[in-house]
Amino acid sequence: MTGERCVLLLSHSAEPLCTDAVAGALARRGARALRLDSDDFPRALALRGELGPDATGLVLDDRPLVVDAVWMWRLWPARLDERLTAAHREAGQRESAAALRGLLDLLCDVPWIDPIDVNRAADNKTRQLRLARDLGLAIPPTLITAEPAAVRRFFAAHDGRVIAKLQTPLLYAMNGRGGLPTRLLRREDLDALDGLRHCPMIFQQYVPKARELRIAWVDGTALVGALDGARCGVDWRYECTASWEPHDLPEPVHRRLAALMARLGLRQGAIDLIVTPDGEYVFLEVNPGGEWMMLERELGLAISEAIADALLRLADDSHERKLR
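Request: output the structure for the sequence above.
Response:
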């Protein structure tokens, strides 16, 4: 492929780390990175789509937007005028998100890591667990419910060793602390479960940890960081006192994760596993837009470089197919 390749990076205005790292890796490969912060649309981002009998196009700042590949990191809600009422802001954010998703669909003829609809479907935590189990990965016994009585039975069946967590963040925040951490369910919590009728939760048997793993998965490559299980707490995002260490995945685990990511349609994702004291690898979840910069910084894992390579490889392959 000749000429400068251009890759669109979809991010948000509060993200200074991963997006810049990928942009830098692309620049070192002679490609141009065009960053769009999703929360700037529509207030500060002049993006529009034009469709007619003879032409379809995406226009940015009155110029046709032409790119060779798209990297979708995260789409955040629109930052709208603070003077709007809560109801008007909610409606505006909903319509802005729908419009942005529609506009980005006009880039369907170039490769994505990963397409919006693929990401949304893959983020289904129940589906992830079902597929992981079917592919031979160990998973914790899991209950997803809004029924207090079911939680009490589950708690008793697992001798009180149960964690509770949400499926989505409560807030959009850069530090990953989007509200309620994963936590151990206490016996006194069993009498205060009426709120589940307003907010169902996931309950899982607590898995003892020798190591907790965060895997930055990039187009078949696993870049792995590990935390000492005794020092990372129930939710390492909030409680960890351990430092990240390198870790090699056993080949059978890598193979099953590759099959899972293929079934989910994902080329990128942050995968969370626990290694038990007996050496068993237990799958927890995949976050399509999960954090990985700490692994790149602390362990020197070339995650942004791998993403840039994958994007340009897909762009070149797509260009070659169009020439045939």
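The mean pLDDT is 93.
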